[in-house]
Amino acid sequence: YLEKTGLERLVNLVLGPDAPGEVTVLATIREQAYQEHIPSGYLESPYWATLRRAGRLHIARKFSETERSRAAGILAEPRILEALDQYGLAEYISAGPDLVEKLTTGMATEPVGAAAVLAAADWSRAGLNRPIPGEILGTLIGDYLSAGRLARPSPDQIAKAIAWAQQPVYAASSLLSALPGGYTVFDYVVEHISGQEDMPVRD
After folding, report:
1. What are the tens digits of pLDDT across the range 130-189?
2. CA–CA separation, 189 vs 31, rounded Å?
3. pTM tops 0.90, yes or no
4. Which of 81, 89, 38 is nearest to 61 (CA)?
5. Nearest Cα to 192, choosing from 84, 99, 59?
6. b or e along 80-89 (b: 16 or more beta carbons within 10 Å of the residue's beta carbon)?
7. Which of 42, 72, 103, 200 has the fewest other C-beta atoms within 10 Å?
8. What is the pLDDT of residue 14?
9. pLDDT in the model for residue 19
10. SS3 sequence of the chain
C-alpha cells in the first residue's frame, strides 16, 4: 500500500544497498495520492521516478454492471450488496464506513479519542505525509476538544484515548495506526473529514 510510509519503504527497497536484482512489486495507491506525486511546474516528488516505472491498472471503486450481477449471484445477504453499491468494495472490506460511524459517535462518547483522530487527520490534511509523533499528538488533543470541556486531558486519558482509536473494527482497520515515528489516520476517514464543510483544518 503506497501511502504514508509505503512509498518511502519501496524506494528504500529498490534503491538501497541490499536491493534485489530482479523483483516484481505488486502494490496499491489511491488516485488522489498518486496525483499528488505527478510533477507540477518545476517541482517533482522524490518518489515520481519510482512511480513512473510502474505499469498501472485502474480499479474502479464501484462494481461494473457485469461484476455486480456476478456478486448478486454469489452473495446471499442483500445488505452486503447494498453496502457495496453505496461505498465500494475496498471501503466495505476495510470497514471504512464503520470507522466513520465510530468517530462520529465517539465525539460524544469518547471525546478525547475523537479529538486525537481529528488532530492526526489535520496533520495529514496540512500536507505532512509523515506520521504525527506521539508527543505532538498528545499536545494537540486538548485543542480539538469542544469548548465546553475546560480541563485538558491527563497523560493517562490521552493514552486510553489513543488505545481506543487503535482498536480495529471487524479486525479490519482502525481509526489510528501506530507506525515508526508516530500515528496515522485511516485514509477513508481523512477523506470523510475533508469532505465536511464544518471541519476545516485547524490553524
Report:
1. 899 999 999 999 999 875 565 689 999 999 999 999 998 876 689 999 988 899 998 888
2. 16
3. no
4. 89
5. 99
6. ebebbeebbb
7. 42
8. 76
9. 78
10. CCCCCHHHHHHHHHHCCCCCCCCCCCCCCCHHHHHCCCCECCECCCCHHHHCCCCCCCCCCCCCHHHHHHHHHHCCCHHHHHHHHHHCHHHHHCCHHHHHHHHHHHHHHCHHHHHHHHHHHHHHHCCCCCCECHHHHHHHHHHHCCCCCCCCCCHHHHHHHHHHHHCCECCCECCEEEECCEEEECHHHHHHHHCCCCCCCCC
Length of the chain: 203
CB 111 within 8 Å of CB 149: yes
Among the listed residues 100, 121, 110, 117, the one whose alpha carbon sits nearest the alpha carbon of residue 157: 110
Question: CB neighbours (10 Å) of residue 141?
Answer: 25
Q: Is the dihedral of CA 144, 149, 151, 154 positive or negative?
A: negative
End-to-end, the C-alpha distance of the chain in Å comes to: 30
> What are the two backbone dihedrals, phi and then psi, of residue 178, each rounded to the nearest 5 degrees?
-85, 125
Buried b (16+ CB within 10 A) or exposed e, 60-73: eeebeeeeeeeeee
